[in-house]
Specification:
It is built from 3 helices and 26 strands. By secondary structure, the chain is mainly beta. It has a 7-stranded antiparallel beta sheet with strand order 1-22-19-24-17-14-13, with no helix packed on it. The structure holds manganese (II) ion. Manganese (II) ion binds at residues 65, 67, 72, 109, 111.
């Protein structure tokens, strides 16, 4: 099996706030060349690195807004996030949990720090990833998957060297619980210091990783510190990770969706005309209703 080479290790871009609750570094699509085409099917990756929020009686977050044409995947590492959408779904996710919302034809939603977490304050750390949908599924029915930590597929590394938690796709024979529209793999590797692991996904799958905690050596050569994103080339299948400290690494690898992308704000479609239609439908109230 051929090794993938490393294209680049991207340091965290300057953070900005989404609403008043999400202090994020945007890697996809704005950092380096991590644009929507290069990283497809992953079209947005906002990383909220660990940040202390002081106690607040009013939960911080982002108010009602629409999405159409893709899925939002929220992965909580520290703190708790509450979600409500116009399809009637709601939930709270905490450390290790994932929320997978298929906006598809359109939803309104809001995302806030959970009430009790807001009141006590604390460290907050999370990832929000947008996964594109193929044209044929962009106008399908909205859907919601809440994936608690206890439901993850778990591959235990030998000698208590850590575990690989599979959210979607697979690691070896271990499968993740999320259902996806196109083939992709999304994993949290929780590695003890000194542990070594090999991952392998098809050469044409766009593949990268984000070091959430700790520090790793990638392919025996490249140091990747925490809060850095490593982009792998599509010139092989496998890559090698050695944990230099106890580490958590988010790994993404997916089959590109080879279709035109037209994106504007919260809408990601295939043509400008479909974007205009999304704005029109939103203003006509066709995304349903959600109280602020
Ligand atoms: Mn949103």
């Amino acid at each position: 099996m051929k090794h993938r080479t490393i294209e680049v290790v991207v340091p965290p871009p300057e953070p900005h706030f989404v609403g008043d609750g999400f202090r994020v570094h945007n890697f996809i699509p704005s950092a380096y060349r991590l644009d929507m085409e290069r990283m497809s099917p992953f079209i947005m990756l906002d990383y909220g690195s660990k940040h202390y929020f002081p106690p607040s009686d009013t939960p911080r977050g982002v108010g009602v807004h629409p999405h159409r044409g893709f899925e939002t995947v929220t992965i909580a590492y520290k703190g708790k996030v509450a979600h409500h959408d116009s399809a009637g779904n709601s939930g709270v996710i905490g450390e290790g949990d994932v929320q997978w919302m298929t906006a598809a034809s359109g939803v309104l939603h809001k995302e806030y720090h959970e009430k009790e977490f807001s009141k006590s304050g604390g460290d907050f750390q999370m990832v929000q990833l947008w996964v594109n949908l193929p044209a044929k599924d962009k106008m399908s029915k909205p859907k919601y998957q809440e994936i608690p930590h206890s439901k993850m597929g778990v591959f235990e590394l030998p000698e208590h060297k850590g575990s690989i938690e599979v959210i979607a796709g697979h690691y070896g024979d271990v499968k993740g619980p999320a259902s996806t529209f196109t083939p992709l793999n999304l994993l949290n590797a929780k590695l003890k210091q000194g542990s070594q692991t090999v991952f392998a996904y098809p050469q044409n799958y766009n593949t990268g990783l984000l070091v959430i905690e700790g520090a790793i050596t990638l392919n025996h050569t490249e140091q990747v510190p925490d809060n850095h994103f490593a982009l792998l080339n599509n010139d092989g299948e496998s890559f090698h990770i050695e944990a230099n400290k106890d580490s958590i690494v988010l790994i993404l690898s997916g089959l590109p969706i080879d279709e035109p992308i037209a994106a504007h704000g919260p809408f990601v479609m295939n043509t400008r005309q479909e974007i205009a239609q999304a704005f029109q439908d939103f203003h006509l109230g066709k995304f349903g209703h959600l109280d602020s």
